[in-house]
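Notebook entry, structure prediction.
Reason for the run: the old model in the group folder had no record of what sequence produced it. Starting over properly, with the input documented here first.
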Amino acid sequence: MTIMVKRRTLLLPALAGAMCPPSPVWAQVTGRMARVGWITAQRAASLGPYIATFRAALADLGRVEGRDLAIEFRYGDDVVERVPPLIDELIRLPADVIIAQGVAVNVISTMNLKVPVVYVTSGDPVASGFAESLARPRPNMTGLTFMSVEFNGKRLELLREIVPQLRRVAIIANPEHPGEQNERAFSIDAGKRLGLAVQFFATRTPDDLTAAFAAMASDPPQGLTLFSDGFAVQNRGRIIDAATRLRIPVLAGWAVFAESGAVCTYGPQLSASYRRLAYYVDRILRGAKPAELPIEQPATFEMVVNLKAAQALGITIPPAVLLRADRVIA
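New structure, fully documented this time:
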């Protein structure tokens, strides 16, 4: 059972520039159906709910599939090498704008395409080389990032609130994820401030995960947090199962982890970002250039508590945490 509670919204500086009204000039020829291409290295099932949100947001903007809009999806099915030829397919359609998601953003950034690109990524666009700054995207690429590094410290604070005896924390992180160094720096500072011993486990591959939990087994930490990215999402079941066997509560950034058995998540509401993605696509189809649209950071955040997972570990969630939760899974 999932109990809906409330939602909080935080507007960040990068949001301001993207809130201006759409240009009145339509990019597409009158009477011509606009064609949007979607490229991702992931499988279709992993994005189903977010695509539904994206479609609904387009409809709210007056764009109806089959009437004045066509969306062409291309999935790499977890094989990054499939992405370049799939992008070529979208170009040949031709697509009026291409949406790149996840790892596909890194691939498309190397191709110097003339077609406008809007992306959603969990990484840092500046560290990835996609932009000079959030306010200055590449001439032909802009979009949204899920990364909010300061929330890594907030999650450690929340973990200590849930586990009062917390002294040692393990953090699983993919060092190849753009922005990971910034996330690590925030976590180290927060750990020092909270008096916590923080141990990092670099996990690029499933074998790295096996090695990380083998190292934890002899003296398990009292809590574990994750830096959210595509690798962590794809391996979330394995991570949470391994932590549960060692009686380690897991706290992460995205709701999908709580839905999969983590004790708690606190971070961006991804569905809100996918709604904003529709806004960006609409703006470009109306004639806006990507360089005119600043890159957005998360604007809406949520806390999700999994009571069932906590109870299985013998953890009592403090009433103050439950009161702040946007969703409680019981």
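Summary: The first strand starts at residue 2 and ends at 4.
The old model has been moved to the deprecated folder.
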